């Protein structure tokens, strides 16, 4: 492709970035400013200009989905053979290539169930852990490994990092040591040791280092604000003494520091490489001005690196709808209302894949899965139970591996469907949440077979199984077409037309165990990531009680303070009115109205019916009734003047 054509569709700063073909280059910019787009075009530009070949490029992305999207864009830009992978996938590939050729001996295999090994390690130390305990300790071991802390140093490191260990730090260190021993004895690899081993292989085997450095000459790393020391170690091993690397990131989106990532590799990039080209992008191409305003509002309150770099966004897109802020009485009411709004969006033409429901913890997902299933909306859950750990998928992969030869007389997709049918892949989706989930994951496998055949019409069962194995190793789950349900962590780098940020209460966002200022700041950045995923439609919501009739003890997230539009006409203190129980309710369904709805006195957003024209009269009626119920004079609730102002306003 003509290099100049590759630059089309970039703004002047993005072009500068793309034309800075020699590293080191650092693009530091806010969400939606086109960082990922700029580096993708930069790669294509370097290839089109003949500066590098496609095979010499290694682009590292944060998730397999991001890698897939980048490969798709590169294909469209005339560079289909560029490798875009996660750190893990790239390391795994290098290990599986060089291990038998250079290192020799039995090849390590991937851990099947990490929690099981952690559990055995704990038992060997006479420590009993329940499932939550196991997860917590596994998380600590992960943190220690990515920050390069050995078991003997764990206690000291935990104190220094200001972390709260899930049990006595001394015990975590013992389990960590036992876990590593067991893992090595059994020749097992966990996620972290894939990176460790790849880096060690490069540093201990000069011929491997030589081969890798001969091949890769052009490195690009996206989401660099969330790189951890172990990933940095591997990147440095790839680079050797060269500095042809381009990194891209946004300090305001650092959301993995709890897991050992640090934005300082990004923010100190120019200190490490004083001759680096630094690029700033400020135009936000993703979101409407209404969404950008919310994002900038979140940033204004941020502290630390996010604030120092002042990455205020300048909206480029035309106006869109105002973000909505909705308070519900309880969680099921919130979930069913969101499901109805999603169904309405789909009815008005927004495809399901362009809609996402984002939450802080995976435990919040179930109510939405149920509500969407009840409403008949297809959905797919990201980052919950890992796809390849689902029992039906384990069984399916096992069966497919065992199926191989002779069946090739029939088309691959038909064979795959036949094999999956007894596991629950019926023609149409069954009723009930569990059966439906099972069906959807099997359907995703069948869809994957179709995709493989789409790319290679002569693909055989062996090809399909090879594709599956590669995906199992890198946890690259196939996509199912539907509304996305995802944790905020799993949503980074992605975008949707419509985003519902749900469950925004104190205790959920910020999460209850976020106590220190640093932890609260990380929660704020998570909120920022969530807000900036929306292109057009952003709905923020929370509920006051867990279940219908339950105690309304929840408070809206502090991150919403000052964000919900204030109303001059209804200047009365809403919090105070809520305390008095005089918050307005929708006349049709009885739901509490949001401040925005109160201000406009529009109908409750959930209700199809409108208010009647005799607004003032009905307002007065509502006021007298409430006053009677509350046993207070009517003017305490609203004066006549206020009601008139409101009625005129509408
Ligand atoms: P994040 O920080 O969330 O990862 P980002 O900075 O990587 O965001 P991109 O995903 O590259 O941003 O771009 C955001 C959206 O804006 C994408 O839909 C992209 O195609 C679009 N976009 C980026 N640059 C331009 C441009 N110059 N003209 C038009 N659209 C653009
Ligand atoms: Mg990006």
TrEMBL record:
One of its GO terms (cellular component) is cytosol. It comes from the Bacteria. Pfam families: HRDC, UvrD-helicase, UvrD_C. Its EC number is 5.6.2.4. Residues 548-574 are annotated as: Disordered. Residues 289-536 form the UvrD-like helicase C-terminal domain. One of its GO terms (molecular function) is ATP hydrolysis activity. Residues 8-288 form the UvrD-like helicase ATP-binding domain. The keyword Thylakoid does not apply. GO terms for biological process: recombinational repair. SMART domains: HRDC. Its cofactor is Mg(2+). Keywords: ATP-binding, DNA damage, DNA repair, DNA-binding, Helicase, Hydrolase, Isomerase, Nucleotide-binding. InterPro entries: DExx_box_DNA_helicase_dom_sf, DNA_helicase_UvrD-like_C, DNA_helicase_UvrD/REP, HRDC-like_sf, HRDC_dom, HRDC_dom_sf, P-loop_NTPase, UvrD-like_ATP-bd. It catalyses: Couples ATP hydrolysis with the unwinding of duplex DNA by translocating in the 3'-5' direction; ATP + H2O = ADP + phosphate + H(+). CDD domains: DEXQc_UvrD, SF1_C_UvrD. ATP binds at residues 29-36. Belongs to the helicase family. UvrD subfamily. This is DNA 3'-5' helicase. It comes from Halostreptopolyspora alba.
């Amino acid at each position: 492709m003509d290099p100049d054509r590759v630059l089309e569709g970039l703004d002047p700063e993005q072009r500068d970035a793309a034309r800075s073909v020699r590293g080191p280059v650092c693009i530091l910019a806010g969400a939606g400013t086109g960082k990922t787009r700029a580096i993708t075009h930069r790669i294509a530009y370097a290839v089109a200009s003949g500066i590098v070949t496609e095979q010499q490029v290694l682009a590292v992305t944060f998730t397999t989905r991001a890698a897939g999207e980048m490969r798709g864009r590169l294909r469209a830009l005339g560079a289909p053979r560029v490798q875009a992978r996660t750190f893990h996938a790239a390391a795994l590939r290098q290990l599986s290539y060089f291990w038998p050729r250079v290192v020799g001996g039995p090849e390590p295999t991937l851990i099947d169930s990490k929690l099981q090994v952690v559990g055995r390690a704990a038992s060997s130390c006479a420590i009993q852990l329940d499932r939550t305990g196991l997860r917590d300790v596994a998380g600590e071991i992960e943190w220690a490994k990515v920050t390069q802390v050995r078991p003997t140093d764990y206690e000291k490191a935990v104190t220094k990092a200001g972390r709260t260990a899930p049990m006595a730090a001394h015990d975590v260190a013992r389990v960590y040591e036992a876990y590593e021993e067991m893992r090595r004895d059994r020749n097992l690899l966990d996620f972290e040791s894939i990176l460790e081993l790849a880096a060690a292989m490069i540093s201990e085997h000069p011929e491997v280092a030589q081969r890798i450095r001969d091949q890769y000459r052009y490195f690009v790393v996206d989401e660099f604000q969330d790189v951890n020391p172990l990933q940095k170690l591997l990147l440095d091993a790839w680079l050797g003494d060269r500095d042809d690397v381009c990194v891209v990131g946004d300090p305001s989106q650092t959301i993995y520091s709890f897991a050992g990532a640090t934005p300082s590799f990004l923010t100190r990039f120019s200190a490490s490489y004083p001759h680096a080209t630094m690029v700033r992008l400020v135009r936000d191409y993703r979101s409407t001005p209404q969404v950008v305003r919310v994002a900038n509002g979140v940033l204004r309150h941020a502290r630390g690196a996010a604030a120092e770099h002042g990455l205020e966004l300048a909206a480029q897109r035309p106006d869109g709808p105002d973000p909505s802020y909705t308070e519900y009485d309880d969680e099921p009411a919130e979930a069913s209302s969101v499901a109805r709004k999603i169904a309405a969006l789909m009815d008005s033409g927004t495809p399901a894949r362009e809609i996402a429901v984002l939450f802080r913890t995976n435990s919040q997902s179930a109510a939405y899965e149920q509500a969407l299933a009840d409403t008949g909306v297809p959905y797919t859950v990201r980052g919950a139970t890992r796809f390849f750990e689902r029992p039906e998928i384990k069984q399916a992969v096992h069966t497919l591996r065992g199926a191989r030869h002779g069946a090739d007389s029939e088309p691959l997709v038909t064979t795959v469907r036949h094999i999956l049918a007894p596991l629950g892949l019926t023609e149409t989706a069954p009723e009930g949440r569990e059966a439906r989930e099972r069906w959807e994951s099997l359907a995703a496998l069948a869809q994957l077979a179709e995709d493989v055949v789409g790319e290679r019409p002569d693909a055989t069962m062996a090809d399909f199984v090879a594709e599956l194995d590669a995906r199992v190793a890198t946890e690259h789950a196939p996509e199912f077409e539907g509304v996305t349900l995802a944790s905020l962590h799993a949503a980074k780098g992605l975008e949707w037309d419509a985003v519902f940020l749900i469950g925004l209460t104190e205790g959920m966002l910020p999460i209850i165990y976020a106590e220190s200022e640093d932890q609260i700041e990380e929660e704020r950045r998570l909120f920022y990531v969530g807000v900036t995923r929306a292109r057009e439609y952003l709905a923020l919501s929370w509920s006051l009680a867990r279940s219908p009739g339950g105690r309304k003890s929840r408070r809206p997230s502090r991150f919403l303070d000052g964000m919900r539009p204030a109303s001059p006409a209804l200047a009365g203190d809403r919090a105070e009115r809520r305390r008095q129980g005089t918050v307005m309710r929708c006349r049709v369904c009885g739901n509490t109205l949001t401040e925005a709805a109160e201000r406009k006195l529009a109908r409750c957003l959930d209700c199809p019916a409108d208010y009647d024209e005799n607004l003032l009269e009905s307002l007065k009626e509502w006021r007298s009734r409430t006053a009677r119920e509350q046993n207070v004079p009517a003017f305490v609730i609203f004066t006549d003047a206020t009601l008139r102002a409101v009625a005129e306003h509408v």
